[in-house]
Amino acid sequence: MTTKINNIIEELKSLTLLEAAELVKQIEETFDVDASVTSNQGIAMISSVANNDSNNDLEEKTEFDVILEEIDASKKIPVLKVVRSLTSLGLKEAKELVESLPKPIKTSTSKEDAEEIKVKLEEAGGKVIIK
């Protein structure tokens, strides 16, 4: 490393937590970047320049929760069978889940999987929402 970089690193080591947070905030504003934590690698600087619309800070959601809201009482057994096939629950646990609605059936799943699960549960007689 160059001496310039070494000096910057040494200066960063002397910062308090509040000063470091303020530094990150200033870097984000000055360079129009987003400092996000990714896995266990630390902080990654991701340019937000690609997003031309600065007012549109919404990112496309990639993980969804499938929530069984309610079921038709006459369709309880078919819904119970679908819940068991979608989860690793036993008969007793699946029955308890179906009887204590609304409950999440699957969490942090892809949009495609969430849509498939919704279709299966609705065909069996359940009312499902995806969040």
From TrEMBL:
<dbReference type="GO" id="GO:0003735">
    <property type="term" value="F:structural constituent of ribosome"/>
</dbReference>
<dbReference type="InterPro" id="IPR013823">
    <property type="entry name" value="Ribosomal_bL12_C"/>
</dbReference>
<dbReference type="GO" id="GO:0003729">
    <property type="term" value="F:mRNA binding"/>
</dbReference>
<feature type="domain" description="Large ribosomal subunit protein bL12 C-terminal">
    <location>
        <begin position="64"/>
        <end position="131"/>
    </location>
</feature>
<dbReference type="InterPro" id="IPR014719">
    <property type="entry name" value="Ribosomal_bL12_C/ClpS-like"/>
</dbReference>
<comment type="similarity">
    <text>Belongs to the bacterial ribosomal protein bL12 family.</text>
</comment>
<dbReference type="Pfam" id="PF16320">
    <property type="entry name" value="Ribosomal_L12_N"/>
</dbReference>
<dbReference type="InterPro" id="IPR008932">
    <property type="entry name" value="Ribosomal_bL12_oligo"/>
</dbReference>
<feature type="domain" description="Large ribosomal subunit protein bL12 oligomerization">
    <location>
        <begin position="4"/>
        <end position="36"/>
    </location>
</feature>
<dbReference type="InterPro" id="IPR000206">
    <property type="entry name" value="Ribosomal_bL12"/>
</dbReference>
<keyword id="KW-0689">Ribosomal protein</keyword>
<protein>
    <recommendedName>
        <fullName>50S ribosomal protein L12, chloroplastic</fullName>
    </recommendedName>
</protein>
<dbReference type="InterPro" id="IPR036235">
    <property type="entry name" value="Ribosomal_bL12_oligo_N_sf"/>
</dbReference>
<dbReference type="GO" id="GO:0006412">
    <property type="term" value="P:translation"/>
</dbReference>
<dbReference type="GO" id="GO:0022625">
    <property type="term" value="C:cytosolic large ribosomal subunit"/>
</dbReference>
<keyword id="KW-0934">Plastid</keyword>
<keyword id="KW-0687">Ribonucleoprotein</keyword>
<dbReference type="Pfam" id="PF00542">
    <property type="entry name" value="Ribosomal_L12"/>
</dbReference>
